[in-house]
């Protein structure tokens, strides 16, 4: 499965990945400044505590940011 | 209605761009707006580890990812009734929970790791090229014009034919379906 993480399209290496809290509404993720929706929203889902997850994170070190929920949500 | 959707996206600061992935074109449709002015979007969840995906026909913009991914019993009836998922991007549909926290895992999840309580969700910034507002939510006739416009835009930005492959693939399938070629 680790190969899968490394076999991503080459152009993706410089892109910023945004981690969306599960308690965020879809709208919050869609209206973010640099989120360009490819006709319909597309989200990547990764399970934690797995070899693939570690490879995923290592490969994107410094390229992952967290989307913050507004206060009171 | 198309203008309403465009305006709604503008009000929400939602930017639409070129498609990235093939999807069941008969069901991609576009966003819909209910009587309350709430938008419902088709949405794709990619499971890169297994090279598979779920396509959700309608995801209410006010619902959280947890609501969408977990047991549908917790969702309002309005959405639960229309929440259909296409598995493996085939042409058949069936209602199902996306990532149940209990019970049987998704068929492809051989280790049972993909539970809503154990997953992270990501999107990629600037994953595709943004389209001008006028080129979103098009009628059938206008879509033909879009083909030409997109090609010129991609050529000008040096992205043709690389980025065009996905776009044209979706368009060809859409035309075939319109002609009755896929039974859609």
Please outline the helices and strands.
The complex is a heterodimer of chains A (73) and B (184).
Chain A: H1 2-6, E1 17-20, H2 26-30, E2 36-37, E3 42-47, H3 51-59, E4 64-66
Chain B: H1 2-12, E1 15-16, H2 25-28, E2 32-33, E3 39-47, E4 52-60, H3 65-69, H4 77-82, E5 85-87, E6 119-124, H5 140-157, H6 164-178
Which keywords apply here?
heterodimer; A: alpha+beta; two-stranded parallel ribbon; 3 helices; 4 strands; globular; disordered N terminus; B: four-stranded antiparallel sheet; 6 strands; 17% strand; disordered C terminus
Descriptive account of the structure:
With 73 residues, chain A is of the alpha+beta class. Chain A has one domain. Helix content of chain A is 26%, strand content 21%. Chain A has three helices and four strands, in the order αβαββαβ. Chain A has helices at 2-6, 26-30, 51-59; strands spanning 17-20, 36-37, 42-47, 64-66. Chain A has a two-stranded parallel sheet. Mean pLDDT of chain A is 84; it is low at 1-10. The relative contact order of chain B is 0.16. Chain B is globular and about 50 Å long. Chain B has two domains: 21-118, no CATH class; 133-178, no CATH class. Chain B has 184 residues and is of the alpha+beta class. Chain B has a four-stranded antiparallel β-sheet, covered by helices on one side. In chain B, a hairpin with a 4-residue loop joins strand 3 (39-47) and strand 4 (52-60). Chain B is 32% helix and 17% strand. Chain B starts with a helix and ends in a 6-residue tail after the last helix. Chains A and B meet through strand 1, helix 2, strand 2, strand 3 and helix 3 of A and strand 1, strand 3, helix 3 and strand 6 of B.
